Amino acid sequence: MARPARVTPDRILAAAAFEFAAHGFAGARVDRIARRARVNKAMLYYYFRSKQALYHTLLRAVFTRAAERIEAIASGGGAAPDKIDRVVSTFAEFIRDHEFFPAIMLREVAEGGAHLDRQTLRALVSVPRAFFAILQEGAADGALRPVNPLVAYFAVLAPIVFYLAAGPIRREVTARRLMNLGALSADDFVRQLQDAVRRAFAQDVSARTRP
Amino acid sequence: MARPARVTPDRILAAAAFEFAAHGFAGARVDRIARRARVNKAMLYYYFRSKQALYHTLLRAVFTRAAERIEAIASGGGAAPDKIDRVVSTFAEFIRDHEFFPAIMLREVAEGGAHLDRQTLRALVSVPRAFFAILQEGAADGALRPVNPLVAYFAVLAPIVFYLAAGPIRREVTARRLMNLGALSADDFVRQLQDAVRRAFAQDVSARTRP
DNA sequence: GTCTATACCCTGATAGAC
DNA sequence: GTCTATCAGGGTATAGAC
To answer: What is the DSSP string of chain A?
Structure first.
């Protein structure tokens, strides 16, 4: 049941996601967000009190949604290495559904989390928390080597975010013929990263049970 | 042989690195850069024509220096897996010498390379180019598994940059007691990442010859 | 809820004296 | 080479009519 009253703020949020991802908080222009959302600028301030409030709302929504997906994997069934496979593919899928996510994630890390209020930080932290639970489960039953959880966390997630965020630069490099980067679809990247991660952290690499 | 004429622009560049890393191009304030460099703002504009020119100069210098270090490894001696170990440690070392680097790198990727002129892009590209040469050498002599070079590149470098850039957020998480992240020094991170990368990409993991 | 017009501040950049 | 003073433009935010 569509609530028409919701559609305007949602359009604003979608436009804001695009703008903040492309230019960062300081570089984003409220005028551009309003124009892209096809609403009047005063309307934007009517729904969101300020540029900051708009940004905070956006961050909270997106980090909460991301955390939910990872938590679902951790608390679901399956062997630990398979769960890690699923973390990789789910994260990539989440980014496909939220193209603005990698850029905003990178910027927020660079910013030192300056725009993350407690609730948002809590959502963000629940991602590594869920991931650590998978690692511990795998170490306990011998499916995973015992490794430092932070190392594993960054080894798994950083490549995905970075690779998908770097798409525009790769296109620029290719367009200027500075280097010949072969074709590599996002799905292929995911599969090969799953493979690398399994070799890096699974106790028995040959135990492949990918669907 | 100190050339006093150089010291002022260098101080400005150092201050700019700090400011741009902390706030990004749009968020950076020329006034703050000048104050931090202890020079008058007019002086800054005397040496650098504009905020943009200052940023470009900084980017070109830092990416060129980073590329040099990686190229030296690729063209140096040793087995391919050992070279990859060295890429990991050298990159971490480079960041220790240039603390502002991870944030600027992340922001530039998020920006889609909007501030990278041809020369800077060329320097940036020479990093993966050197890395790919190592991979090819290793695949040719059987020391490395044949893998997609882009996957390996991002699997190796993204975790380092991301992990070191995320230091401030980790401190924030710890300070707010949202999660208990154990102690992990940068050196430990490097060693464990080297280990993970070797397992992921070396043909024979047991062939360890780390100094 | 929607729009126009505008206040007001911030910031990049420069003119011009020394 | 160095500094003070200032301008011009652009950007967030709001007042107030409808």
So the answer is: ---HHHHHHHHHHHHHHHHHHHHHHHH--HHHHHHHHTS-HHHHHHHSSSHHHHHHHHHHHHHHHHHHHHHHHHHSSS-HHHHHHHHHHHHHHHHHH-TTHHHHHHHHHHTTSTT--HHHHHHHHHHHHHHHHHHHHHHHTTSB----HHHHHHHHHHHHHHHHHTHHHHHHHHHTTS-------HHHHHHHHHHHHHHHHBS-TT-----
Measured CA A10 to C1' C9 distance, in angstroms:
30
Q: What is the pLDDT of residues B97-124, one digit of tens each?
A: 999 999 999 999 999 999 999 999 999 9
Residue A97's domain comprises 57-201
Beta-ladder partners of B202: B144
Note whether B109 contacts A: Cβ–Cβ < 8 A: yes
Q: Which residue of A has its CA nearest to B177?
A: A122
Give CA–CA dist A134/A78, Å, rounded.
Answer: 10
- Is the same domain home to B156 and B75? yes
Q: What is the pLDDT of residues A150-162, one digit of tens each?
A: 999 999 999 999 9
| CB-proximal positions of chain D, under 7 Å | 1-5, 11-16
Spatial CA neighbour of B56 closest among B90, B3, B13: B13
- Same domain assignment for residues B26 and B99: no
Residue B144, domain member (yes or no):
yes
Q: Is residue B87 part of a domain?
A: yes
Rounded to a whole number of angstroms, the distance from the CA of A83 to the nearest CA of chain B is: 18
The answer to whether A136 faces chain B, any CB pair under 8 Å, is no
According to DSSP, the residues that pair with B144 across neighbouring strands are B202
Q: pLDDT at position A210, please? A: 52
Interface touch A176/B27, C-beta < 8 Å: no
pTM beyond 0.85: the answer is yes
Domain count within chain A = 2
Closest CA of chain A from B204, distance in Å: 12
Q: What angle do CA A47, A48, A53 make, to 5 degrees?
A: 165
Contact B196 A193 (CB under 8 A): no
Q: What is the mean pLDDT of residues A24-44?
A: 98
Q: Read off the CATH number of the domain in which B23 is found.
A: 1.10.10.60
